[in-house]
C-alpha cells in the first residue's frame, strides 16, 4: 500500500501526531533545552480559521507517517507577494525510502499554488536529505538563517 497525501486540520491531528512531533524534535532540534515541544494550539486554530495555515498529512492506511505544516502570508515588504513558508516537515524514518517525501513536498507546492501562493519557502538543516534534495527539485538558496541563543 502506497502512502497518500491529503490536507488535514492540524489541530484535529495534534494528539495522533504526537509521536511524530517527538521524533521530529529528537532528530532535528538544534537547541533542545530552549526548544521544548509545546504547540500553541490556539495560534494554530487562529491561523486555520484565517486560511493562513496549510497542513498536509502523509498517511499509510489510517496512520499518519508524515506532515507538512506551512504558513501562508502576504510578504510585508513585497505587498503583492503571497508566500507559503514551511514551518514543519517530517517523515517517519521507516517511510523515507522511495518517493513519499518528494510526493509530500510536491503536494505542498501544488496546494500552495492552488491557494494563490507566488513563492514557496523551505527551511532545511545543513547536510540533511532535504538540503540535498531541494536544489535537485529546482529550488535555490534565498536566505541563510543563523541562530544564537540569547
CATH superfamily membership: Gcn5-related N-acetyltransferase (GNAT)
CATH arch. level architecture: 3-Layer(aba) Sandwich
Which strand order do you get reading across the main beta sheet? Answer: 1-2-3-4-5
pLDDT averaged over residues: 94
Rg result: 15 Å
Task: Provide structural commentary.
By secondary structure, the protein is α+β, with helices and mostly antiparallel strands. Strands 1-2-3-4-5 form a 5-stranded mixed β-sheet, with helices on both faces. The protein contains 4 helices and 5 strands. The chain has one domain: Gcn5-related N-acetyltransferase (GNAT) (Aminopeptidase, 3-Layer(aba) Sandwich).
Give a quick set of tags describing it.
150 residues; alpha+beta; Aminopeptidase; 4 helices; globular
Topology diagram in text:
Layout lengths: L3 E4 L2 H19 L12 H9 L3 E8 L2 E12 L7 E10 L8 H15 L4 E3 L7 H8 L14
Parallel strand pairs: 4-5
Antiparallel strand pairs: 1-2, 2-3, 3-4
Summary of the model, kept short:
By secondary structure, this protein is of the alpha+beta class. It has 4 helices and 5 strands. The longest helix has 19 residues, at 10-28.
Amino acid at each position: 500500500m502506497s502512502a497518500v497525501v491529503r490536507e488535514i486540520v492540524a489541530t484535529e491531528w495534534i494528539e495522533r501526531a504526537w509521536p511524530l512531533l517527538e521524533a521530529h524534535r529528537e532528530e532535528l532540534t538544534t537547541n533542545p533545552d530552549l526548544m521544548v515541544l509545546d504547540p500553541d494550539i490556539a495560534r494554530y486554530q487562529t491561523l486555520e480559521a484565517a486560511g493562513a495555515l496549510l497542513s498536509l498529512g502523509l498517511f499509510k492506511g489510517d496512520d499518519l507517517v508524515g506532515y507538512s505544516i506551512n504558513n501562508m502570508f502576504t510578504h510585508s515588504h513585497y505587498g503583492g507577494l503571497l508566500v507559503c513558508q514551511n514551518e514543519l516537515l517530517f517523515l517517519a524514518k521507516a517511510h523515507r525510502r522511495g518517493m513519499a517525501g518528494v510526493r509530500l513536498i510536491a503536494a505542498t507546492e501544488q496546494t500552495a499554488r492552488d491557494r494563490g501562493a507566488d513563492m514557496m519557502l523551505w527551511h532545511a538543516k545543513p547536510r540533511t536529505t532535504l538540503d540535498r534534495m531541494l536544489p535537485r527539485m529546482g529550488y535555490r538558496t534565498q536566505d541563510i538563517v543563523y541562530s544564537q541563543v540569547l
